[in-house]
Amino acid sequence: MTVCFTFDWVNAAPSPDVAMGQTMAQLWIHVNEAAVTSVRDRRSDARRDHIVVPLLGVAEWVIGNWCHIQHEVPGATADMTRQKTGFEQRHNLAFAGDGFLFPKLTMAPSVGGMQQLRWTPWQPQHARIEFVAEGEAPVTRDQLQAELERIVEAVLDRLRSFGHRQDSVISHLQDPWEAIKTLDPDEHEFCRAAALLGVDPFAVHQEAAEAITAFWERTEPAIREDMLASLEEATLPNASPWLDETRKILEREDAGSGNEWAAIRRGLRHRLPDLPIAQPWRRGYALARSLRHDLGCGNGWFDFASSGQPALHHQEISMPSSRMEGLVAAGAPACVIASRGADAARFLCARALGDYMGRSEAGLGVLTSMDTARQAQSRAFAAELLAPAESLRARLAGREAEEDVIRGLGLEFGVSTWLINHQIRNHDLVQPCPSG
Hints:
- Helix 5 packs antiparallel against helix 6 and helix 16 crosses helix 17.
- The strands form four sheets. Strands 1, 2, 3 and 6 form a four-stranded antiparallel β-sheet that branches. The protein has a four-stranded mixed β-sheet with strand order 11-13-12-14, with helices on both faces.
- The chain has 17 helices and 14 strands.
- The protein folds into three domains: about 180 residues, no CATH class; about 170 residues, no CATH class; about 35 residues.
- About 45% of the residues lie in helices and about 15% in strands.
């Protein structure tokens, strides 16, 4: 998987913004073989695979959002309206425009050190062109970083060639770029923490910086990144007190859980085959199938209160953020979860069990709606534990996935119709019907 930014400088007509005119270029963006910059002229219907734009705007946008592009994870949804405030502006190249038109190309971290690129068609209002390409692909973080670095360096070299050396035209780019390139390890760690929160590490006020540092230093490494990813600057102050109180609840539950789940976990993990770290959902599926087999659950409803297995204790409490969904004890799958309906509560309890079974390090577990490897694994585990793909396949054999069928399966397994459709799509069982 590759991404490539190709450009040729052009001689632009005189412009009030001299630097913009000096960095005008034809720009091609390709992801694998797809031309992200493919446009159609709405008057002539002519098509081309490049746009003509000032690369100064791209360089400014890249520098201003560098840490977010590298570190700020999205929510587990393509719906931008459910992302953090300002997420799209920090990750979508279309916001580099400053009056010029760029494709809606979103760049955000994904699992296994990858970056997920997503581009969508759009018709800018009152514009002659429209962007027609659509797609999604993962690329390596290093490869995307190298392409973005190349754009910034090319713009700086171009401005220097026009005589800009120490003036404001170049210093507003060069100074922050040098700061990014010379971060020491402690500064880099702070930038990562701030970006996870959705805060610009180079424009954060002192009080917020101290709050980020304090949270990072006092919170267990196993959960601090996923927690920060689910919080925002406004909700951060309440997170540490909430964590202190909730930890006490879980310690009481943990103490009363015995070691039955721990024994099951050791045996299950010992038999689990090595699976690619870049595909945490595969590990989640495998864990759930192995656990169902060990517990002798059959192929139907998973009963958390079954007499043949240890109890899974949970409490419903309020969360410090709408994106936080639960906290899981250190020594057992006992959990506190957000207050939800019955189906959603079952799903969160299953996620808590999956988080406990799949941990790679000791300590608490956290459940969030963010798109991280840990969350992807627990969601896959919960889906497969509650509604096994092969059980659904058998029930759907020779049937259409109509709305009433999906609803019936949801009732049978005690899950939402969304989860049933999710399993059908991800395991290619049949063609699902839209569900409400």
